[in-house]
Specification:
Strand content: 25-35%
CATH architecture of the largest domain: 2-Layer Sandwich
Number of domains: 6
Structural class: alpha+beta
Radius of gyration: 38 Å
CATH superfamily of the largest domain: Bira Bifunctional Protein, Domain 2
Mean pLDDT: 91
Number of helices: 19
Distance between the termini: 75 Å
Number of strands: 42
């Protein structure tokens, strides 16, 4: 949400600098994500002066160029080459001097420099309107009225230029009260006044307006639950035209494009005061009757964007006397009832609609408008009349309209404020500190929360209806803390807690152990959204009521999120990445023959530890300038994590479309991990042009096998290990995993570990052969290992390798 600093000043006067205002807004929960500069004319016409063309003659080397001398009141004539067809001697013109920066429509700045153009010197530029950002006109240079523009004056002095600072606020969904400039000002005022800082707040009040004649329009609200409050005003003699410059600049500052005065006034009220309005062409309302009720299922309705939509029967619709739909209430207007240039009478709507109904309608039709954004979260039901009077006043002043008859209103049951009891003891318990009771009452008053009665150890309070998110005692406590200041709560000098004995069966302990191991090895943990979009919907879990099409499915894998993280970092010159994420994935898998009472699909939820590495495995340095990560680098970390489980694992090749080469690690028939090189197709989709390696570990499987492993601690051996090496000549199709698996079957209790330390293929070896060099660690934990025992084990291994793999010993 964008908030203009100039606009805020309509409601609150302080002596704060813009940066300090942003800091305080963040402190009270309205997080300022950035502050942007807004200029109604880019560059604010700096470096532009009023000049006079003293001479103008044909350029000697170009038919379409003129040589001019221009006086800008500096005492020295400027020589300027000009290509405009309408330049002539004696004209008063705007002149950009050397060093001036002009901004064009394409966004590229142009700095005016002294240069030679076709052999003639040029010391500036005579400007057209579009080159100055004043309009799109490029029919020639801008010729000024000599009687109104004084020679040598700054051109900017003749224009009401606007410079503004715009806050980008990351508004949380619960803060419906702050979805406007008025709401932000109100919140800021509460913080400043309770912290004894200067603040003058202008509270909103209705405008005094007078009506002429009697309106023959009527209202018919079919369901007060769907539309608890509805107001309408008929305004005649409206002149639909371009908005005044000040109004257009207000809207442009927050990123809106001006349309016409009626629409712009509606947007001004919406973003200024927080109440969405909608204007109808009154002459298009049949029987001069406005009805509010449910749509008819299957009805076709064309919205303002020209799209024909099929109604589902649950939307709130604004209809005319013949039940013709005119507007998708609170979401989007209709194409046939909207205001046009020929409109002379309008029907202006201000209402409070049921938030749930608006949310469902907006989601059903994939619409997210400024109006629906507010209505579906709950606007202030008691501000509808006040904001309508402000809009009517503006239309009378800007568009020349006049209110006909009294404002029509339907408000059968007033929406009451929330009644709550606040306990001082609860405030102290939650905040961990004591706030003076008078300070609490001061904060509540600043937040427009009324203290109805003081009771023993507490207060009876009334929370205004516009605070739709403050409905419980804990919500009020949060409001008190927000305004009191999080920074004022001291950190405790000591923390008391009861130690908890961790069980070996504790999955959190396993996950924390893994996380600490990875973090200590330079990995960074990431957390991605479980909601995503998918290309392949096979077995994907789709949400019944998604927030948007981009967040319509539960993720099937953690890989896509990690690739997005990698892409983000690589594009910001951080190509060496070691990421991990602990998170859940979701699948829908068909059930072969479900029982009649069972659903057709079964949903599966699994937790995984995902790891992604790419780039260099160590920082660039003179010793290892090209140390790139690879499959074995990733595998080493996976093995480190799995070693804690003390399981006999097996490895086998894996056919998985996500990988170009992949491996699966299993134990006791359960998958522990999958890892491999990410496929080129996935990397292309993620816009990544460097190799990435990914692993996923099945957390639940690992924990279950860990619980079954009956791990026991052993003393450190008192005797030394003995190492023996074997060099084997083997067929190329035999893998180290095959040899490792065969060696682990050896019955000797002395064989402790096996390792591959050299692989050779090529010269001096027979065709189709390769050489593996293996090391074997042997240990007798009770006494020094004797040579005969070592020989027995090694001979047994050699026989196994010769029998199962036709291995030959190399000397």
């Amino acid at each position: 949400m964008k908030i203009s600093a100039n606009w805020l000043k309509d409601f609150i006067q302080t002596d704060l600098k813009t940066e300090k205002t942003g800091e305080y807004l963040t402190d009270i929960g309205l997080e300022v994500e950035g502050i942007e500069k807004f200029e109604s004319v880019k560059g604010s016409l700096e470096g532009i002066f009023v000049g006079k063309v003293m001479s103008c003659e044909q350029h000697p080397n170009a038919d379409k160029l003129k040589k001019t001398t221009v006086d800008i009141g500096s005492g020295t004539l400027l020589h300027i080459v000009c290509g405009a067809p309408n330049v002539a001697e004696g004209q008063t013109v705007p002149v950009a001097v050397v060093g001036t920066v002009l901004y064009f429509k394409d966004g590229k700045p142009l700095e005016i420099k002294e240069a030679k153009i076709r052999g003639e010197i040029s010391q500036g530029m005579i400007c057209a309107e579009d080159e100055l950002g004043l309009s799109d006109d490029h029919g020639g240079i801008m010729i000024l009225d000599e009687s109104k523009f004084e020679l040598g004056k700054k051109f900017a002095d003749y224009f009401d230029l606007v410079n503004d600072q715009v806050f980008e606020i990351g508004l949380t969904p619960n803060r419906t009260d702050a979805m406007s400039h008025y709401g932000v000002a109100r919140d800021l005022n509460a913080y400043l006044t309770t912290n004894q800082m200067k603040s003058e707040f202008t509270k909103l009040s209705p405008e005094n307006i007078t009506a002429e004649g009697v309106s023959d329009f009527t209202l018919d609200i079919e369901d007060a639950e769907l539309c608890p409050r509805y107001l309408g005003a008929v305004i005649e003699n409206v002149n639909v035209a371009e908005s005044p410059l000040w109004l257009k600049n207000r809207l442009k500052a927050i990123g809106l494009s001006p349309i016409n005065n009626i629409v712009d006034i509606s947007n001004y009220i919406l973003h200024g005061l927080g109440q969405p309005l909608h204007a109808f062409d009154a002459d298009k309302i049949a029987a001069k009757k406005v009805k509010v009720g449910l749509s008819e299922k299957g009805t076709k309705f064309v919205t303002l964007d020209g799209v024909e939509r099929t109604l589902n029967g649950t939307e709130i619709m604004i209809k005319d006397g013949e039940n013709t739909p005119m507007c998708l209430a609170g979401v989007f207007g209709g194409a046939h009832s909207g205001v046009s240039e020929s409109t002379q009478t309008i029907f202006l709507e201000s209402a409070y609609f049921n938030p749930v109904a608006i949310r469902k309608a907006a989601k059903a039709h994939g619409l997210n408008t400024d109006a629906s954004f507010r209505f579906e979260r709950g606007v202030d039901p008691n501000i509808t009349r006040t904001t309508l009077t402000h809009a009517i006043k503006m239309i009378e002043e800007i568009a020349g309209g006049k209110l006909k008859g009294e404002i029509l209103e339907n408000y059968p049951v007033k929406i009451e404020d929330h009644y709550l009891i606040l306990r001082f003891s609860k405030v102290e318990q939650i905040l961990g500190t004591k706030i003076h009771r008078e300070k609490i009452k001061e904060i509540l008053k600043a937040l427009e929360i009324t203290v109805l009665n003081e009771i023993q150890n507490g207060l009876e309070i009334s929370v205004p209806a516009y605070r739709a998110d403050v409905t419980r005692e804990i919500d009020v406590i949060e409001e008190i803390l927000r305004i009191y200041g999080y920074n004022k709560i001291d950190s405790p000098k000591k923390i008391s807690f009861s130690p908890v004995k961790l069980s070996f069966n504790d999955q959190d302990a396993l996950e924390n152990s893994w996380a600490r191991t990875l973090q200590s090895n330079g990995f960074n943990e990431v957390m991605n959204n479980s909601l995503t979009s998918v290309k392949d919907e096979t077995n994907a879990v789709k949400l019944l009521n998604p927030l948007s099409n981009d967040l319509a499915f539960m993720r099937k894998s953690l890989l896509e999120g990690l690739l997005e993280n990698a892409d983000y970092n690589i594009k910001r010159k951080n190509p060496d990445i070691k990421f991990f994420e602990l998170g859940k994935i979701y699948h829908r898998r068909p059930v072969a023959e479900p029982a009649p009472e069972q659903p057709k699909n079964k949903y599966e939820e699994r937790k995984q530890l995902a790891i992604l590495v790419t780039g260099r495995n160590v920082g660039e340095n003179w010793l290892e300038p090209k140390s790139a990560t690879n499959f074995y680098y990733l595998k080493s970390y996976v093995k480190i994590l799995l070693e804690n489980l003390q399981l006999n694992t097996e490895e086998k090749a894996l056919d998985d479309p996500r990988f170009s080469d992949a491996l699966e690690i299993t134990a006791r028939g359960k998958t522990l991990a999958r890892l491999g090189k990410v496929s080129a197709e996935l990397l292309k989709d993620a816009d990544i042009d460097q190799d990435c390696y990914y692993a996923e570990i099945e957390v639940e499987n690992c924990q279950k096998l860990r619980e079954e492993s009956n791990l026991k601690f052993a003393d450190i051996p008192k005797f030394n290990k003995i190492r023996r090496d074997l060099a084997l000549l083997l067929d190329k199709n035999i893998s180290y995993a095959d040899l490792h698996k065969a060696a682990k079957k050896n019955p000797s209790k002395y064989l402790k570990s096996i390792n591959l330390f050299d692989v050779y293929e090529g010269k001096n070896l027979p065709e189709g052969k390769k050489s593996y060099a293996l090391s074997f660690d042997l240990l007798n934990e009770e006494k020094t290992l004797e040579e005969k025992d070592i020989t027995e084990v090694m001979n047994s291994l050699i026989k196994t390798f010769q029998k199962e793999f036709a291995a030959e010993l190399r000397s």
